[in-house]
Amino acid sequence: MSETLLDTLVDLKISPVSVEVKERLEEFKLLHSLPEDEWFSELCFCLLTANSSAQKGMQIQTEVGDDFSTLSQKELSRELKRLGYRFFNKRAEYIVGARPYSKSLKKKIQKLAKKDTRNAREWLVENVKGMGYKEASHFLRNVGYTDVAILDRHILRIMYENEMIPEVPKSLNKVQYLTYENVLRLIAYKLKLSLAAMDLYLWYTKTGKVLK
Question: Are 51 and 121 in a shared domain?
Fold first, then answer.
């Protein structure tokens, strides 16, 4: 990791950005205490962000609301298309496919994550179609778990530019994901940050925004 990036992160920790980061983490912590329907809505949001953007996912989450749980797959597909979402058919399929877990998701995740958040992530990857390690990590972070990394294209680009990984991969298998995550885990430990906080700081260095 370059000294320049390390210095940037240290500076951000004592800058006004740190207030935004802390507020965002508090929002995630609050969501952790909310009911099952809010967790399912967040799961849908994370399914929507794959190969898309957080901004578009947030817009759709706000406009669709409770209809994530009630619209037919065809109706949901039409609604996603109306809202300008690119992968409207496939994401509608994934969201409808996840509905069997909508009333028990919070309970299941909290039980699995009690010993290790990564247990919950494995369950999500194995059981929720359309959810890879990045999307599962994103969901877990957004419902209050701070010890997994979201290896999206921005984070991978930063890691590559700072000689932390040999290339920016088009996709990550499980071994690669866990290996790269551990690289960030070590740096977060040195900076006395959670992986969730460091992700927000790194994302800010690339985008100038602190989003969920």
Answer: yes
